[in-house]
Design brief:
4% of the residues lie in helices and 37% in strands. With 493 residues, it is mainly beta. The protein has a single domain, classed as Methylamine Dehydrogenase, Chain H. The strands form 8 sheets. Strands 1-31-30-29-28-2 form a 6-stranded mixed β-sheet, with no helix packed on it. The protein has a 4-stranded antiparallel β-sheet with strand order 3-34-33-32, with no helix packed on it. Strands 4-5-6-7 form a 4-stranded antiparallel β-sheet, with no helix packed on it. Strand 6 (122-128) and strand 7 form a beta hairpin. The protein starts with a helix and ends with a strand. Mean pLDDT is 94; it is low at 1-8 and 14-18.
């Protein structure tokens, strides 16, 4: 089948149609029953929990509790959870067809899922039942602009959002505003309402887009745009202060309790701190190795990671060298000696790239290889991407870093996660198949050894392609994966 024909089929899948309606049981993402019967549903064995010790991630007072607040789980962007995910016991799988990709997933104080789903025809914020995936509430967001870019590689306009301390979704929108969307309740059930909109359009060109927004520990909302604007918003007055870096930004950023805001552009990693008048001020800037091309598996010619803050000392990213490196820096405003802790090459030369954030604990990093993922057609007809998931540890005393293990699993584009409670790394994998069936799996790896513990089938076909969405673990132990067709849930029976 030609690429053009595949894209026509994909667009048909994502076009408005029989997506779930409010108050109606979830409609599953379509898949071919014969494909499902032809592939293994489960391999491996149920896991025995082996908890992992890690420093407690500080709670940002202006965000929902850690693990519930944003795509990368907390303000430090650790991609870790303090609760357990599925162990692999008699697993159950269900999905909801939304004719859109429901990537970023948050959880409100009542346990309901709040997600933004982005399709070719529109953007919506949804509230879903965490067990049944029934649609409880929905609200339209501004539609995508033609200038937003490739819909499969642009994360602006809702790809990143956060849930605040009052269960309000703070969402960068495609009309260059930041919407604060609150929850409502009434006789007809829950709903959403627009509480406030911060309009940044007068500060931005029409071709620019807000990539992400996050609060610091003082309550300022920081934002970054794809064209390199970094700014702050005073939540009370709405006053905006900004600086133009002149460098592209393609991912979210991290915020620590000391006031540091860590942003990676296509050329350098920055630490910002707010000046007395709330203006963004560069505290330090570190360039990284960059061969200057967009490697297959990345969306820009630079680092593909959101910065990851580890414990109280370090910040980690990947660079754009060949082979790609994991790079760790000391993140304090000022340091004695070199800020660079280590540069560790990962994966094979000519076949290494990532566009997903790292998993980071106090001293351990897990990195995933996305080389070869150029979009949805890259993993059709049984094809997959280059293999590799690796763990790197920072040596005692910060004297360098060392490889710990390598897994041959192939994870085309989903953000992996770690359960500290059970010691499992959750990846979303796709093995190559000669029969051209496209089978997608939730795969659990041992954090200690990298060994594959189990693989559970999520589904088959284009609708189950995660396309850069993360694995998310709910407080009840369910795993969720955003997919081109909507959202998939996998849980122990």
């Amino acid at each position: 089948m030609s690429v053009a024909a595949l894209l026509v089929g994909l667009f048909a899948l994502l076009a408005p149609g029989p997506a779930a309606a409010e108050g109606v049981a979830a409609t599953p993402i379509p898949q071919n029953p014969s494909d499902v019967e032809a592939v293994p549903a489960f391999t491996g064995s149920p896991a025995k929990p082996r908890p992992v010790f890690a420093p407690t991630v500080p709670q940002n007072p202006f965000m929902a509790p850690n693990g519930r607040s944003n795509l990368h789980d907390d303000a430090y962007m650790t991609n870790t959870y303090t609760w357990s995910g599925p162990l692999g016991n008699s697993m159950q799988t269900l999905s909801t067809f939304q004719a859109a990709e429901c990537g970023s997933l948050t959880v409100d104080r009542l346990g309901r899922l709040v997600t933004v789903c982005i399709g070719l025809e529109g953007v919506r914020v949804l509230m879903l039942d965490p067990r049944t995936l029934e649609l409880l509430a929905a609200m339209e967001l501004p539609p995508r602009k033609a200038s937003t870019g490739n819909p499969f590689t642009s994360f602006s306009g809702g790809g990143y959002f956060y849930l605040d301390q009052n269960d309000r979704a703070v969402i960068p929108t495609t009309n260059n505003q930041i919407w604060v969307v609150g929850e409502t309740s009434g006789p007809s059930g829950p709903g959403f309402e627009l509480v406030r909109a911060y309009d940044l359009s007068s500060f931005m060109s029409s071709e620019d887009a807000i990539i992400s927004a996050l609060p610091d520990w003082s309550g300022r909302i920081w934002f970054a745009t794809t064209h390199g604007l970094v700014g702050t918003i005073d939540q009370a007055s709405g006053a905006v202060k900004l600086v133009n870096l002149g460098e592209a930004i393609g991912n979210s950023f991290a915020v620590d309790k000391t006031g540091g805001v860590f942003i990676v552009t296509d050329r350098a990693l920055y630490r910002f701190d707010a000046a007395a008048d709330n203006s963004p001020r560069v505290s330090w800037r570190e360039t990284y190795a960059n061969i200057g091309i967009v490697k297959p598996g990345q969306t820009e010619d630079g680092s593909g990671t959101t910065p990851n803050l580890m414990g109280g000392k370090y910040v980690a990213i990947t660079d754009n060298a060949d082979p790609m490196d994991v790079v760790v820096y000391r993140r304090a405003k000022s340091v004695t000696g070199s800020r660079l802790v280590c540069t560790v090459p990962v994966f094979e030369p000519g076949a290494s790239s990532t566009d997903n954030s790292l998993i980071g604990t106090g001293h351990s990093i897990v990195v995933e290889n996305n080389f070869g993922y150029t979009g949805p057609t890259a993993t059709t007809n049984g094809a997959s991407t280059a293999p590799g998931i690796e763990r790197i540890d920072i040596n005692t005393g910060g004297t360098g870093c060392s490889p710990v293990w390598h897994s041959p699993q192939r994870a085309p584009s989903a953000v992996p996660k770690l359960s500290l409670a059970n010691g499992l790394v959750y990846a979303y994998t796709k093995p190559p198949r000669s029969d051209e069936i496209d089978a997608w799996y939730l795969t659990a790896l041992s954090f200690r050894t990298g060994a594959t513990v189990y693989e559970q089938l999520a589904g088959t076909g284009l609708g189950f392609n995660s396309n850069y969405a993360p694995v998310s673990i709910g407080p009840d132990g369910s795993a969720y994966v955003g997919a081109l067709g909507g959202l998939v849930e996998l849980r122990d029976g």
